[in-house]
Design goal:
Elements: H1 5-14, E1 21-26, E2 29-34, E3 37-43, E4 46-49, H2 53-59, E5 64-65, E6 74-77, H3 84-97
Antiparallel strand pairs: 1-2, 2-3, 3-4, 4-6, 5-6
Helix pairs in contact: 2-3
């Protein structure tokens, strides 16, 4: 079941105090970006955050799941989804340890 527009709007509202936040629809699901880094996915009306050591320490009792079949496991956010400050802090902490996005190669170069 693809993510509903209401659910992605809710997630984005929970994170609305973060500057440079965006999401991109992909195959009925969403990739969520903070300062140009993808930090999470919203799939089947669930929020998944990319795993980092700092994020795991912040969460404590981490619940991991795959956002879609064949995907690497991510942190599944359930109980704290309604806690705006907690969720925004998790994104900031996780963002610090995520790699910079890969530069896209010029199509003319091979």
């Amino acid at each position: 079941m693809p993510t509903s527009e209401d659910f992605i709007a809710y997630v984005m509202d929970q994170l609305d105090e973060l500057e440079d936040l965006s999401c991109r629809k992909m195959f009925g699901e969403y990739a969520v970006y903070y300062k140009s880094k993808i930090f999470g996915l919203v799939c089947d009306n669930q929020l998944f955050i990319k795993p980092t050591k700092a994020g795991a320490a912040f969460i404590g009792n981490v619940q991991e799941a795959s956002p879609y079949p064949g995907a690497k496991k991510s942190f599944l956010i359930t109980g704290q989804l309604d806690n705006k400050q907690w969720l925004q802090e998790l994104v900031k902490i996780s963002w610090e340890q995520l790699p910079e996005p890969k530069k896209k190669r010029d199509k003319k170069q091979k």
